[in-house]
Amino acid sequence: MSGAGTPDFFYREAQRLGYVARSAFKLLQIQNQYKLIKPGSSVLDLGCAPGAWLQVACQSLGPLKNGGLVLGIDLKKVKVPPLHCDSRVKTICADVMNLPKQQVRALSPKQKGFAVILSDMCPLVSGITTKDAALSAELGMRALDLAVGYQEEQSDGSSSSDDSGMLQVGGNLIIKLLESEDVKEISQISKPLFRKSSWLRPKATRPSSREIYLICQGLKPEAKV
């Protein structure tokens, strides 16, 4: 079991249903409320360890005949869970902070990017609130950059193929963050780029946790650079 505390309802349910972590229920709730992952979608899962979101994402693609793809990336080597996953799920071991977009885009269907990008990335928590929040915001900005090309566009204004994000027009983005002032900045940047954005604290989130999810729906055509 990961995280602090004694086994609770979500931990026991994860065990019973064959999910590798209780975090599966966070994405299950998001998916039930927002229907972000459509059958046959291409999904990029950033910070995919230990693999619970890979399982839920694959389930959300529907039957194997529907097609689709789930690509997980993590600093750790992640073995694709045997339950709830099939041949559409792949993982690579890499540092998301330094990974070239072209390399990831090459793994997407027809190299045209992804319909959904999930970021459940979280820093190694130090217990120092401001430090942890800043690191979380940095990961969140990187997820936004990979999705829409925000940071590179701001820094040099160039238009090379690696500058644009990997999220398809109309696509959806989920970013996990730790609540702080930095969170507001990421929300302000992302809001005009998407048709709709909202915040959610899933029921499976531990009471002691400050994590919250930014749900961005429907990337606007003008957001693609």
From TrEMBL:
Record-annotated active site: 176
Taxonomic superkingdom: Eukaryota
Keywords: Methyltransferase, rRNA processing, S-adenosyl-L-methionine, Transferase
Domain Ribosomal RNA methyltransferase FtsJ per the UniProt entry, residue ranges: 19-218
Stored Pfam families: FtsJ
Gene3D superfamilies: Vaccinia Virus protein VP39
Example of a GO MF term: rRNA (uridine-2'-O-)-methyltransferase activity
Keyword Transferase in annotation: yes
HAMAP family the UniProt entry points to: RNA_methyltr_E
Annotated family: Belongs to the class I-like SAM-binding methyltransferase superfamily. RNA methyltransferase RlmE family.
Protein name: rRNA methyltransferase 2, mitochondrial
Organism whose genome encodes this protein: Senna tora
Taxonomic classification: Eukaryota, Viridiplantae, Streptophyta, Embryophyta, Tracheophyta
